[in-house]
Amino acid sequence: MPAENYPFCTIDPSVGVVGVPDERLQKLSDLSKSAKTIPAAIEFVDIAGLVKGAADGEGLGNQFLANIRETDAILQVVRFFDDTNILHVDGTVEPYKDIEIINLELALADMEQVKKRREKIVRDIKAGDKNAIAEDAALAKLEQNFQLGKLAIHAGLTADEKKIIASLNLLTMKPILYAFNKKSGGHNLDELADGRAERAHELVKSLGFRYVMVDAATERELNDVADDDKIGFRQEFGVPEDGLVDLIRGAYDTLGLISFFTTGEDETRAWTIVRGSSAPVAGAAIHTDFLDKFIRAEVVSTTDLLAAGSWATARENAKVRTEGKEYIVKDGDVMVFLHG
User: Fold this and answer.
1) Which CATH number characterizes residue 325's domain?
2) Is residue 257 a contact partner of residue 277, using CB atoms and an 8 Å limit?
3) C-alpha angle 44-107-254 in degrees, rounded to nearest 5
4) What does the CA dihedral 86, 91, 93, 97 come to, rounded to 10 degrees?
5) Could you give the strand order of the β-sheet that contains 176-181, starting from the edge strand earlier in sequence?
6) Is the pTM for the entire model greater than 0.85?
7) Which of these three, 223, 254, 285, is where a domain ends?
8) pLDDT at residue 6 in the model
9) Per the domain annotation, does 146 fall within a domain?
10) 116 and 99 share one domain
11) For position 213, what pLDDT does the model report?
């Protein structure tokens, strides 16, 4: 994905699919002596940065906002270092202001969409259409929320109201993960202790979201370096932590996703499901037949299976359970499905 020292280097979205780091996967694969090991995957879409006025079309804002609308969650990469040789669109580096500007532009775009939708259903409301009246009530709640400068996700909508407005695909209904982008050898804000880092941390906390630290430039440099050599290079760059692991895991968690596993001689694989999914829904990640024809599942936690050393021993130790349709799958479950 391109990254250059000028605004709007990226015009068209760039898509990257990455495996979700999970040390449990390789351990299960080693246990089963699997021929293949397949991680869960997450798709990142690199969309150009927004600027003040994006909701009114500034900086190709309408195009970029439309691209964001297609995502399930938003990852905001926020500059977290001083460097006079690298341009900042506003001339000064103040992360909390950058966050506020972007969130405002997202909210303004959503407010315009809500306004247009309310205008469109006026006739149906006058005709006494119950669905239109219910939708208008939810939209009115959102509009009031935007006027207070808040995101749609903080509007306090009920589950039914969220379903009613889901088709609008509002930008500020999406969960947000913030990546504070540092620079090796640079003047990083968390080291300067001048209040800017603290202000950014507090803002993200007040929004109910989370952040991760990453050095994007260094990670880009290490992209083609063999895994065995990366530790040495990280020490040389002064970036001991693998920021990409935190970023990918953070994105996975922000989306409300968990992994369960299947393992055997042919392959060990991590499967992605939404947290809170039932066993039949989890099975459907493997094959749609499991959803309607699910009978039962055998389940053991990764920890118990690895400790036992084999499925047979885990069963002998009463660690393998038989679960039915109502079972809610937990992160790290190893499962075998039986269907009709």
Assistant:
1) 3.10.20.30
2) no
3) 35
4) -140
5) 74-79, 176-181, 210-214
6) no
7) 254
8) 39
9) yes
10) yes
11) 92
